[in-house]
Amino acid sequence: MFTGIVEDIGAVKTLQSDKQSMEITVVSKKM
């Protein structure tokens, strides 16, 4: 049960980091 929660948190963190990197690339393309 705890391992599942940890995996969920890890997945959320990776999704957030992917979103941030995508936003950074979009901003760099606009400049």
UniProtKB/TrEMBL annotation:
<protein>
    <submittedName>
        <fullName>Riboflavin synthase</fullName>
    </submittedName>
</protein>
